[in-house]
Design brief:
mainly alpha; about 80% helix; globular
Length: about 260
């Protein structure tokens, strides 16, 4: 019972962070599970399915508001979903034992945590940089479409290896590539892409690699789902600049920890 309660509390804490800031799912949950003594591969696989479920409600809400640019989300998915599946197959067939790719997972997690911290600190500037770029692309231009597919493929590989980056890093790239979209539209569009990506990556970890703990996942979701809603209600009264700054410091510290220890 105490272990089950700990799972609920962990899911609730991360769910609250997701609701208040819109980010922090994989970036916080995977390190928390590692610190709870779960193997890194189990933490990553379980967290991917946790992220898919907790973010699904946001997609429905944004879709009803007409905030999602589905063509852009589709271009991202055209790159990310095949790349995610191929990455999982590579882990399954290239490595003889699950422990042999632990170092790869740890390095990927460290890099993605640091990368997330960096893009969060630069987030407010990315859209202005995109607008200032010569010939800033329209949403239907071919060059950004191809670039979007390529970015999706890279995210597919890295998210499958680390469970981190589907939200924050994907949003940062879209802010630069599509500066004419509002920040809310960018967040909504990336969220619509992040749900199928984390779902496919999580199912791949589960079915191909055996890297999902079902009991742990259920406990995390029991805590997260109500707290995501509460966090969303609190987001309007919480100091977002302070919260994001604190998150940047935490993620940078975690990234250095997984890279060098």
């Amino acid at each position: 019972m105490s272990e089950w309660l700990l799972h609920i509390l962990a899911g609730g804490a991360v769910g609250l962070a997701i609701g208040m800031t819109g980010i922090g799912g994989g970036s916080l949950m995977t390190p928390i599970l590692v610190f709870m003594a779960y193997p890194l591969r189990i933490a990553i696989g379980t967290d991917l399915l946790y992220a898919a479920v907790t973010k699904a409600g946001g997609v429905i809400a944004y879709h009803r508001q007409g905030m999602i640019h589905w063509p852009i989300a589709t271009w991202l998915a055209c790159g990310s979903l095949p790349a995610s599946g191929l990455t999982a197959f590579a882990l399954r067939w290239v490595f003889d034992d699950q422990h042999n790719y632990s170092a790869l997972l740890q390095s990927s997690l460290g890099v993605m945590l640091l990368g997330t911290a960096i893009v969060l600190s630069l987030r407010s500037r990315l859209q202005s940089w995109g607008q200032a770029a010569e010939g800033a692309p329209q949403c239907n231009d071919a060059p950004p479409r191809l670039m979007t597919v390529a970015v999706g493929a890279l995210l597919g590989v890295l998210v499958t290896l680390s469970s981190v980056g589907a939200g924050a890093i994907g949003t940062a790239v879209l802010l630069y590539l599509y500066p004419r979209l509002t920040p809310v539209e960018v967040i909504a569009t990336e969220l619509a892409h992040a749900v199928p990506l984390t779902l496919i990556a999580g199912l791949s970890h589960w079915l191909l690699l055996g890297n999902v703990n079902g009991r742990l996942l259920l406990g995390l979701l029991c805590g997260a789902l109500p707290m995501v809603y509460l966090g969303a209600r609190l987001s309007s009264v919480m100091p977002q600049t302070l919260l994001r700054g604190l998150l940047v410091v935490i993620l940078a510290g975690l990234g250095l920890r997984f890279l060098f220890y």
